Prior knowledge:
Blueprint: E1 5-9, E2 14-15, H1 27-31, E3 34-42, E4 45-46, H2 49-62, H3 70-83, E5 89-97, E6 106-113, H4 116-124, E7 126-132, H5 139-142, H6 156-167, E8 172-176, E9 189-194, E10 197-200, H7 210-221, E11 226-228, H8 233-238, E12 241-246, E13 250-257, E14 260-261, H9 268-274
Parallel strand pairs: 7-8, 7-13, 10-11
Antiparallel strand pairs: 1-2, 1-6, 3-4, 3-5, 5-6, 9-10, 9-12, 12-13, 13-14
Amino acid sequence: MTDGSIAALLDGTLVDPAEPLLRPDDLGVLRGEGVFETTLVVDGHPRDLDVHLVRLAISAQATGLVVPAPDRWRAAVAAVVGAWAGGSQMVLRLIASRGPEHGEPVCYLLGTELPVSSRRQRRSGVRVLLLERGFTVDVGASAPWLLAGAKTLSYGINMSALRHARANGADDVIFIGTDGAVLEAPTSSVVVARGRTLITPPDEAILAGITVRRLFRAASAAGWPVRTERLGTADLHAADGVWLTSSARLLAPVVAIDGRPRSDGGLTGELAELLDMPAA
């Protein structure tokens, strides 16, 4: 373990995160070709691991990448979790880089401490900007080669959006389609509340959110109405609460949109319980 991080190959061999692992000609490095998943490990238990492995396989298929079977990933996860000596919450990434041309994919795991910023945003919320994403919600069907619903290593646009937000006094971004439809955040899904009804955009042109699905299952079992629905910017401003959900940060209330403060309707605590969120 180095500086609060740990890495391993799929055979369970631990490797120094500070040492080189990928070749300079790896297409994951040169072109961002590859897929990954991120989950949170709490007190030695990875959350929703099986679902993440399914989504990893779906993303790999969409990109024409052959990744190892789930059992091999699970064995490596067990090795990393067993060797972790950090805090009670670890962010675990499962990564498959395409490797060199005509070579084999390079698969590995990376565990890191949960960032302080994630803990803070769970408690204090996030200020977001609304940014146009450059396509409509129909792009998944009309242009599947854009990989809008796959979790790939090509995160340049996502990171650029977050830098733009921070340079303009915000913490995060909600992407809006050119047709005005709410899509997703760079690393999160969007959930809104109308009264006690929870709504999220449909899985069109966005990554299917694992944490939002977990939240909706728990909320539905507790008697909350839940549904998917196309949302616009007016829906965000009119909602009784807006949240970003993700596998590591879990749940963060949106406290301002384009500089306009907003309330969470007093619902964040209840939703956090439904998500079985660990203490910050």
